Amino acid sequence: MRHIYECSVRFDDLDAFGHVNNVTFAEYLQEARVDFAHRQLAGTGSSPHEGSVVVHQSIDYLAPVPFRTEPLQVEVWVTRVGTTSFEVAYEVKDDTTLYARATGVLVAFDVRANTPRPVSPPEREILERFLEPQP
Description:
21% of the residues lie in helices and 38% in strands. It is built from 2 helices and 6 strands; from the N terminus they run βαβββββα.
């Protein structure tokens, strides 16, 4: 199963060539990841100081995105769940074009202790619902 986030293209997302800037794609991924966390992982019993941090991210840019009024779809899914980390994959697309693929590694993190923590059983249960092999 994939989490789908609809992301608007804002005028200031564009570069001098009139396309969405490459750095902005990282922002789109972040918005989708945060939306996934708030909609799917909220209510897992984690304390407010617990969450996850991104330790790696890779983006393959497949096609330029010009300014558009229709939102892009950013799909997020989980490709691996470990003891303290999990991996995610993303696709940025619309009905006809795949603009980017990306992957990321996140580590469950305790902000107060400033250290990784185990993925909790409730978090693992939800993450595994979104588990798909990497294409």
